[in-house]
Amino acid sequence: MSSIDITTSLSSLHPDWKLAENNQMLSRHIELNTFAEALALVNKIGDLAEQQGHHPDINFGWGYVEIYLTTHDIGQVSDKDITLAQAIDTIHL
Fold it and tell me: Which fold has domain 3-91?
């Protein structure tokens, strides 16, 4: 996916999604109110990832979730990452 395609695709996502690692990764930090909310969101993201067969790296703790998307096979952001990010945007608490 070219830089132009990435920029265009980012406009379809929640504004908190950022390009990271020299445009090779999408990341998003989500603030929540409790550990239970963070865990619930991680589980929902996990379900989506399993459905799509594309798995993010996720860090979470009390009141936050950090999501990192990249397509490791090609070492950059792909349509798979954008599609999963769009799905994640629909479940955010």
Answer: Gyrase A; domain 2 (3.30.1360)
